Amino acid sequence: MELRKINLQDAAAQWEYTTALPSDENGLTNPYHGISYDEYMKKALPELISYEHPVNMPDWFVPESRYYLWDGNLLVGEFRIRHYLTEALRNGAGHIGYSVRKDLRGKGYGTEGLRLTIQIAREIIHEDEIYLRVNKDNIASQKVMLNNGAHLVSEDESHYFMRIPK
């Protein structure tokens, strides 16, 4: 398995994955759900690639690197790393957001993808810990985080806030 940064060469598979992902699944937002391949290539892909080194973005925006998890020739998941945290992210979504194809969940892809993402995140982020948030009803994702060394630091009505030592 490997993580590949978003790129032009894998555009067709990335489009298929991205447009099939719901607009909001377990807190991971996706404004590109259902867009055409043409729109993905002309607007979404260049925009997503630019997020790593943003120009002319709102003050609240933070750089974000997007990776896809591949098992051979099969794209199985998406992993996003926010380079640093605003107060809203510190008390919200945190550094890493991810998803795995529904038909491939429960096969260890989330655990391995997060492990690989953490290796990259440790080189990118500035904070002493990697911040994560998970819905309380998302038991599978909680296990993925715990399998990668996360510990619970707080909770609210619907989320657990987890940390992984850098």
Describe, in plain words, how this protein is organized in 3D.
The protein is an alpha+beta fold and 166 residues long. It has helices at 11-20, 37-50, 87-90, 109-124, 139-147; strands at 2-5, 24-25, 28-29, 64-71, 74-82, 96-100, 129-135, 151-155, 159-165. The protein has one domain: Gcn5-related N-acetyltransferase (GNAT) (Aminopeptidase), CATH 3.40.630.30. The chain contains 5 helices and 9 strands. The strands form 3 sheets. Strands 1-4-5-6 form a 4-stranded antiparallel β-sheet, with helices on both faces. Strands 7-9-8 form a 3-stranded antiparallel β-sheet, with helices on one face. The two termini are 23 Å apart. The model has no long low-confidence stretch (mean pLDDT 94).
Low-confidence stretches: none
Strand order of the largest sheet: 1-4-5-6
Oligomer: single chain
* CATH topology term: Aminopeptidase
Topology of this protein?
Blueprint: E1 2-5, H1 11-20, E2 24-25, E3 28-29, H2 37-50, E4 64-71, E5 74-82, H3 87-90, E6 96-100, H4 109-124, E7 129-135, H5 139-147, E8 151-155, E9 159-165
Antiparallel strand pairs: 1-4, 2-3, 4-5, 5-6, 7-9, 8-9
